[in-house]
Amino acid sequence: MHTTVPAGLTRKQAELYAKLDPERLPQHIAVIMDGNGRWARRRHLPRIAGHKRGVEAVRDVITLGARIHLQALTLYAFSAENWKRPKTETSFLMALLRTYLKNEVPLMNENNIQLRYIGRIHELPPEVQERMAWATDQTSKNTGMVMTLALNYGARAELIDAFRSILEAAANNGGLEHLTIDEALVSSHMYSKLPDPDLVIRTSGEMRLSNFLLWQLAYTEIYVTQTLWPDFDGTHLLEALADFQRRERRYGNVGAAF
Predict the structure, then answer these.
(1) By Cβ atoms counted within 10 A, which residue in 15, 83, 154, 160 is the most buried?
(2) Half-sphere exposure of residue 48, counting CA atoms within 13 Å on the CB side?
């Protein structure tokens, strides 16, 4: 099988991509970006240095994703639990987010990337919400990869909000007895309307989901790498895709070998 390699890839990336089956790429990839603090600590740098370098990793990964025509990429950027960190760090992260959105919109437009968000966005600082709305508007006409940033996000909070939304819908439509309570109903009230991720990538070697997309990851393939997020790039993403394509997805059924 001859695979046409997209333009803009490095030589190593082109070699990795040529071994993939473009027809079997995951539709939706989710990433738990972990390891910024450890990356900085190992270099005797302040934690903010790790966050700054992490932005460069985001740029590299989304560019590669767009070039190989991934349909959707969701990045766990700021969890609801991250507010427990020192105020100096959370304030820096909010400022970094505003700067990122301002600076990266041209790259998103160049690569035809749509920008979306999930999480309790209304709880973020007003100036951050304004910049987020601006960036969404600036990329709204793009038709390529959907990049979703999970901000002030927690999977349990998402489930609570979904149940509240279902109860509100029931109250407006004659009560719960008029609703069919099933997976489709719950899914329709979650933050994102994208298909469930086919692959979730966790950097830094930690073996947990950290309250991320618990409903959506029921049958998602998990790929854990020891690479810290600031060192993760498009080449690492292609290696994760190669591993994904070696998997047999059974969704609870028996495998071909049985």
Answers:
(1) 154
(2) 12
pTM comes to 0.94
Q: Is 30 a member of any domain? A: yes
Q: What is the pLDDT of residues 144-189, one digit of tens each?
A: 999 999 999 999 999 999 999 999 989 887 777 778 889 999 999 9
* Nearest alpha carbon to residue 76 among 180, 220, 229, 185: 229
- From the candidates 21, 36, 60, 82, which is the catalytic residue? 82
206 within some domain: yes
**Amino acid at the residue 179:** L
Only one residue has tokens 């995951």, namely 26
Number of domains in the chain: 1
Residue 169 lies in a domain: no
- pLDDT for 252: 64
pLDDT score of 44:
98
- Give the CATH number of the domain where residue 142 resides: 3.40.1180.10
Catalytic residue among 34, 111, 198, 233: 34
